[in-house]
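Submission checklist for the structure archive. All mandatory fields must be present; incomplete records are returned to the submitter.

[x] Identifier: Putative 4-hydroxy-4-methyl-2-oxoglutarate aldolase
[x] Organism: Nonomuraea antimicrobica
[x] Residue count: 218
[x] Sequence attached
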Amino acid sequence: MSHPSLRRLFSTVSSALAADALDHLDLRNQCLPPDVVPLAPSHTLLGPAFCLRAEPARETRPTVPYQGLLRAMDHVQAGEIVVFATGRSDAAGVWGELITTACHARRVAGALTDGLVRDAATLAGGTFPIFSRGTVPYDSKGRLDVVEHGEPVTLGGVPIRPGDVLVGDLDGVTVVPAEAVVRVAELVADKRATEASFRAAVAEGGSLTDAFQRYGVL
């Protein structure tokens, strides 16, 4: 599916609505832990995952640093979201201002990590969406090395495969398996219509119980 087609299909899909649709499909472990949050309230994610994984560095003073990261970044495509799996490491900021500048120029759709970032003041003021567990001043050089890319990863117990669709906003991040994308969009459209009817009923002073019994949403 092309990225413009995905954006049209998911134009009204929030992380919460995506999670509701996945619950309907009995996929109930698709949301990342609540400590993975946007760097700025305006930051939102929508796009297919490009996965990479980091491990503790073997050398604290590498002769040629960042090799795994540079190889990975040579392969990320426009519209994709970089998913940076660190095993919830606090060792270093794995994302910063310079890599953001490069990815923004290539129209990468955002970055997501279960680790930490740095250069936060600059990044929070920009339009490139970044989700992480927090910030730290440390550089990744000699602390964390990217050891693979293009393979499935796990963040907070949630498997993420290359091409799975990420929906992120202030509520959190929901991972939509690639094969469920169209069905999730259909279910969200149906629920939004039902919620509109529910909203109108209670806005007119109707009973919450009666509205729930009639429309089945809350």
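[x] Structure attached
Curator remark: The chain has a mean pLDDT of 92. Helices lie at 3-9, 15-24, 67-73, 97-105, 120-124, 181-203, 208-215.
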